[in-house]
Protein: 4-hydroxyproline epimerase
Organism: Rhizobium lentis
Amino acid sequence: MRNSFFCIDAHTCGNPVRLVAGGGPLLPHVPMGERREIFVRDHDWVRKALMFEPRGHDIMSGSIIYPAYRPDCDFAVLFIEVSGCLPMCGAGTIGTVTAAIEEGLVKPREPGRVAIETPAGRVDVTYEEKDGYVDSVRLHNVASYLHESDVEVDVPGMGRLRVDISYGGNYYAVVEPQENWSGLDGMSASEIVACSQRLRRALADVCNPVHPDDARISGVHHAIWCDRPVNDVSDGRCAVFYGEKAIDRSPGGTGTSARMAQLHGKGRLTVGSSFRHESLIGTIFEGRVEAGANIGPYRGILPSIGGWARVIGHNTIVVDDRDPLAHGFQIR
């Protein structure tokens, strides 16, 4: 059997976003949380074929647009990545909105504003458009919160680390410089990946956070290593780890949300404050704490993230069952 997918390739502040504009599987008209489960159960080969090698790579990220189930949303998005079908992806949202608006895939009810249904909930987005191009995007992310502070974990090769578990659409282990980790300076991307893999494995035996409003969102699958900024206009710098070997080239949308929620939960960032977050390649997300929020028994924030994306190409991808590598592969 031969399947074709028409994709619009873009990047958000350096991180790839592959928007599947044609060929994605038809899914029942149910809430996105349920559609995500159906996709994972019946169609996950599509994600693997488009995200893994030889058509993708270790940091590949993508999305598929669907009609919204919620009447208060313009359209729905399913996020597909090397790490799985995420509840939410900030860089993916910025890239998806940019590509969808510029290529005419969606027509907003109100110019400059769209509401998106994601598996994590409704996400409101504003954007600035000039001469037919989207210059910038600000996403108003789902409610984010500090789940647990000062979790101590023994990481092979590093020793005992103290991390915070924070939610920004995905759960993150937030690591700041301390006795057994001096910071990002001098660390290569491969070293960050190796440390992240060991940290995630060690945390699996220590904590398993579950979202108080949606038990389908659970577990610490991401890590964000935080340090002093290099750029004078930034407030912080980070390396976001996801998947098996991926380091986000952007500062991470859900990662920046989780970082701001962690700082707010520790009394270091107030409502109304901004947080300019720098990536390993120097690109910046403009974070802002818009308001306080309650997430079950937790007190958190409503964060927004400002960034930009650029469309870099149109891509027709063929997946042919005659190809022994049709459904992709990863080298571990």
In short: DSSP finds five helices and 19 strands in the chain. Helices lie at 32-42, 44-51, 90-102, 189-204, 253-265. The two ends are 28 Å apart (CA to CA).
